[in-house]
From TrEMBL:
Keywords for the protein's UniProt record, in alphabetical order: Amino-acid biosynthesis, Decarboxylase, Lyase, Lysine biosynthesis, Pyridoxal phosphate
Designated gene of the protein: lysA
Position of the signal peptide: none
Residue ranges of every copy of the Chorismate mutase domain listed in the record: 402-483
Name this protein carries in UniProt: Diaminopimelate decarboxylase
PANTHER family xref list: DIAMINOPIMELATE DECARBOXYLASE, GROUP IV DECARBOXYLASE
Claim: Lyase is one of the keywords in the record: yes
Function: Specifically catalyzes the decarboxylation of meso-diaminopimelate (meso-DAP) to L-lysine.
EC number of this enzyme: 4.1.1.20
CDD domains xref list: PLPDE_III_DapDC
Length: 641
């Protein structure tokens, strides 16, 4: 059960969705229980909520999947749902979607027109396979629900009439590349009356008997989904036991596997939306509470005029006030409830919208350039992240490459955004790899798999290696190869800076001279203990202190430490550009001894003002004060020195 105290600790993350994953699992198991003893398959409808972690919970509980796009199919498979439990429905399947669905070996495709059937047959023939199909029948039964989610009347776009359904079955029966194995129907969503469903069960069971008698080898009887929940106190959901009994009665004597496709009924009651009051205001007619969630995040009230229960997370003992709860979107439709009675609201109060586990996040949009919300899960008494909140780059990543903006600063800003995404993706991959290694270790398996490693490198390894080694070499060399002077091994330089530059070898002193004379764009100096390099460091200190040269970065590969050097003001600076090198420029003679005593050179590149832990001989320098030099984050920070 969701704990208000735990939720309150997450207030800084509003707005967010929070799902009770234990409740979702139990919601699915209730369906399994009422169908116990019957051949059955419970296919969760991903349209209701397709969060991968939520799907994984259902997959482990034994759920199948009802999908209406190839991307939902991919989600189901990625979450661990077996292909033989996946159904692909939808009136407008694309050719590439049908191809992929057949290749993945799903249970069956739900056919909704003769043209679609012929396309499936053509693709199956090209693949030299037999496509398992179901035919969706429109029984022309009024489901007594909102017209937007009515799907079983002839005026609706879904399915085919019984007469055409029979023709489709007979055509498929004769085809060498089609296998008609299921009859499917679905009359609508948010159904609260059992009588329309009973009527549909009886009508479609009669059709199934006719088809079996006609030689169609049906194996599945798919009743669709649509069971509603009580969003309001006056509403009463259909009993699952009564629902199952009605199906059993209608299909008595039919040796078919019963399939149902619940979505809302499994997840709706087990999700809440937490939002914060931003402002309140009143006029002569209304009291408004403006919250930080918008209709783009939660569409049901605007689209279906749906009403969801809402309450304060932390109750107040104050007189009730009638509020219109509205969001920040630039439309009057951005209203979640009108005239709701709540204690007097103040900025910062947390509100809880209940029963939003279905058709909440799954219907969200980016209207007003608003990112999708954070999604959290409550499981086993703990709250964990199921989906990160999107950031600005998530909104623009597919548009960045099409800008015509001019100027280096603009393009560097774009690169910074891309780098953030690369970092996120790589960190996510590393986390998964670490989890796999942990799982292998616990299972007593070998962590190292050379075959798998070779496969990964063949797919992405070479590209990632190239990106890593060339980021610095290419970042300022997009027009021409850069000239780089190096006072280190050529191989070290190539490893650090990539391949796209002209390389010249120098000793330290001639390297500095070449940089100042612009014979090279920048230089790479290896820090070693030899007298020549020590003299080079002392000379470098003089150049830096007189603002002729600057050091932008330091690198360490194994035991080799290198400095990237350029003319003052030439090298691209990172943000923030606070730099520190902890010695006195007037005491140049002390630099050599100090560097030789330093076992970890990274202490030379931390932001000024940070407390530092460094393994050096502090008796060597007479005094220390900062000189601007380089930035790096590979330091250990401590509470004292």
């Amino acid at each position: 059960m969701l704990d208000p105290a735990q939720i309150a600790t997450l207030a800084h993350k509003t707005p967010f969705y929070l799902y009770d994953l234990d409740g979702v699992k139990n919601g699915f198991l209730e369906f399994k229980e009422v169908f116990k003893g019957q051949k059955s398959l419970i296919c969760y409808a991903l349209k209701a909520n397709s969060n991968l972690a939520l799907l994984e919970v259902l997959a482990k509980a034994g759920a199948g999947a009802d999908c209406v796009s190839i991307y939902e199919v991919r989600r189901a498979l990625l979450a661990g749902i077996a292909p033989y439990k996946v159904i692909f429905s939808g009136v407008g399947k694309l050719e590439n979607e049908i191809v992929e669905a057949l290749e993945k070996g799903i249970l069956f495709l739900n056919v909704e027109s003769f043209e679609e059937l012929r396309l499936i047959e053509q693709i199956a023939k090209e693949q030299n396979t037999k496509a398992r199909i179901s035919v969706r029948v429109n029984p022309n039964i009024d489901p007594a629900t909102h017209p937007y989610i009515s799907t079983g009347l002839w005026e609706n776009k879904f399915g085919v009439e019984e007469k055409e359904a029979v023709q489709i079955f007979m055509f498929a029966k004769q085809s060498a590349f089609l296998e008609p194995i299921a009859l499917q129907f679905h009359i609508g969503s948010q159904l609260l009356q059992l009588s329309p469903l009973k009527q549909a069960f009886e009508k479609m069971a009669a059709l199934a008997r006719f088809l079996l008698a006609s030689g169609v080898e049906l194996k599945f009887f798919d009743v669709g989904g649509g069971l509603g929940v009580a969003y309001q106190d006056a509403q009463q959901p259909i009993s699952l036991k009564d629902y199952a009994k009605a199906i059993f009665k209608a299909t008595k004597g039919l040796d078919l596997t019963l399939v149902c496709e619940p979505g809302r009924r499994i997840v709706a009651d087990h999700g809440v939306l937490i939002t914060k009051v931003q402002y309140t205001k009143s006029n002569a007619y209304k009291n408004f509470a403006i919250v930080d969630v918008g209709m783009n995040d939660f569409m049901r009230p605007a689209l279906y005029q749906a009403t969801h229960p809402v309450h304060l997370l932390t109750p107040k003992d104050t007189a009730p006030v009638a509020y219109d709860l509205v969001g920040p979107i630039c439309e009057s439709a951005d209203c979640f409830v009108k005239g709701v009675s709540l204690p007097k609201l103040e900025r910062g109060d947390l509100l809880v919208f209940e029963k939003v586990g279905a058709y909440g996040a799954s219907m969200a949009s980016h209207y007003n350039s608003r990112p999708n919300l954070l999604e959290l899960g409550f499981e086993g008494g703990e709250i964990r992240t199921l989906r990160e909140r999107e950031d600005f780059f998530d909104l623009i990543e597919h548009e960045m490459g099409h800008l015509k903006g001019e100027g280096i600063a603009s393009k560097r800003a774009q690169i910074d955004q891309i780098d953030q995404t690369l970092s996120k993706l790589l960190n996510a991959r590393f986390a998964l790899s670490a989890q796999i290694a942990k799982d292998k270790h616990e299972a007593g398996l070998s962590v190292y798999n050379p075959i798998r490693e070779a496969e990964i490198f063949a797919k992405v390894g070479g590209q990632l290696e190239s990106v890593y080694t060339e980021i610095l070499g290419v970042s300022r060399g997009l027009v021409r190869p850069e000239k780089v002077g190096v006072a280190t091994h050529a191989n070290t330089a190539r490893r650090l800076l990539g391949q796209r530059f002209s390389l010249k070898l120098y000793n330290p002193l001639t390297l500095f001279e070449s940089i100042l004379l612009k014979n090279v764009d920048y230089g790479l100096l290896e820090v070693r203990g030899s007298s020549a390099h020590a003299q080079g460091l002392e000379t470098l200190v003089e150049h830096v202190s007189q603002q002729r040269l600057e050091v932008a970065h330091s690198f360490k590969i194994g035991e080799v430490w290198c400095l990237l050097i350029g003319r003052f003001g030439f090298l691209a600076q990172t943000s923030p550009t606070r730099r520190a090198w902890w010695f006195a420029p007037t005491k140049v003679q002390e630099v050599r001894a100090l560097l030789n005593s330093c076992k970890d050179p990274y202490f030379l590149a931390i932001p000024p003002g940070c407390l530092l832990e460094a393994n050096i001989d502090l008796e060597l320098p007479a005094h220390l004060q900062p000189l601007m030099l380089g930035t790096y984050s590979h330091t250990r920070r401590t509470c004292g020195v």
